[in-house]
Amino acid sequence: MHPDTHLVIQLQSLDQKITALEKEVAALPKHIAAIEKTLEAHVRKLEADRAALLANQKDRKKFEGDIQMNDQKISKLRDQMLGAKTNEQYRAFQHEIEFIEKEVRKAEDRILELMSESEPLDGNVKKAEAALKEEKQSVEGEKKQARERTAADQSQLDLLRAERVQAAAKLPPAVVTQYGRIRKKWNGTVIAEAVGGRCTACQIVVRPQHMQDLKKGEQLMTCENCGRFLFYNPPVHVEDVARVG
Q1: At what angle do helices 3-82 and 87-169 cross, to 10 degrees?
Q2: Residue 36: its pLDDT value, please?
Q3: N or C: which terminus of the chain carries fewer CB neighbours within 10 A?
Q4: Distance between CA 91 and CA 86 in Å, rounded?
Q5: Average pLDDT of the chain, as a whole number
Q6: Three-state DSSP class for 229?
Q7: Mind giving me the DSSP string for 166-207?
Q8: What pLDDT is recorded for position 183?
């Protein structure tokens, strides 16, 4: 195996680790943004429930005020009825009182409806407040973990990038340039092993003469089909291992 092969394999491994960490670092803010968006939606829902409950309470107070005002009107009309001089005047007061009493009953019915509507609203608000409190704590916990993970990833990235610079410096500039072109073309997969006479990346059979040259390991070679760097690992036989032992 050509000496540069090990460096290319090392470079590819470092690039894969760097890419994975960069994706994770980029994904963490998106994850936080997503959970914050969900939290904001729950906050808006709670605000809407609170507003509905407040409107319900205001309506009840308004109807209660109307009832109180109408009760006062009825009381005055009854006092005035006592001074009626004719039957027509008496009946007029009586009709007006009956009309106001109907309005009072309508207001009382509406108050009962509002009270019935307020119970689930009040329950929703209390449940949402409790759930939101827990959710905020959970979100803060996740944000803290994300910040810590990002810091750890950045530290690891700095080490890997420094190691990559050292590895690339050991390769001829032409090989580094070729490495970059292959990596861009094949989305990170730069070097593949030849197994069973085939390139394991593209699965195309390697020409016999090309395979023989590859086995010699005298130069860094590429797959004639896909253009990736190609390497050959000779099989290890049990007998050879036994003789070495």
Answers
A1: 170
A2: 92
A3: C
A4: 9
A5: 91
A6: strand
A7: HHHHTS-HHHHHHHHHHHHHTTT--EEEEETTEETTT-PBPP
A8: 94
CA distance 176 to 8: 9
d(CA 90, CA 80): 9
Label the pairing between strands 229-231 and 191-195: parallel
**Cα within 13 Å of Cα(8), Cβ side:** 30
The pLDDT of residue 94 is above 80: yes
Which residues partner with 193 through β-bridges? 231
Percent of the chain with pLDDT over 70: 96
**Mean pLDDT along residues 210-233:** 94
Own/partner contacts of 129-137, CB < 8 Å, gap of 24 or more, are 129/46, 131/42, 132/39, 132/42, 132/43, 132/46, 135/39, 135/42, 136/39
Alpha carbon 54 to its chain's center: 33
CB atoms within 10 A of CB 146: 17
Does domain 3-169 sit in CATH 1.10.287.1490? yes
pLDDT digits (tens, 9 = 90+) for 101-132: 999 999 999 999 999 999 999 998 999 999 99
Residue ranges of the chain assigned to CATH 1.10.287.1490: 3-169
What does pTM read for this prediction? 0.66
Q: How far apart are CA 46 and CA 84, in angstroms?
A: 56
Token couple for 200: 């394991």
What was the pLDDT predicted at 84? 86
- With tokens 């006062």, the residue in question is 72
Residue 237 has pLDDT above 80, yes or no: no
Q: What are phi and psi of 207, to 5 degrees?
A: -55, 140
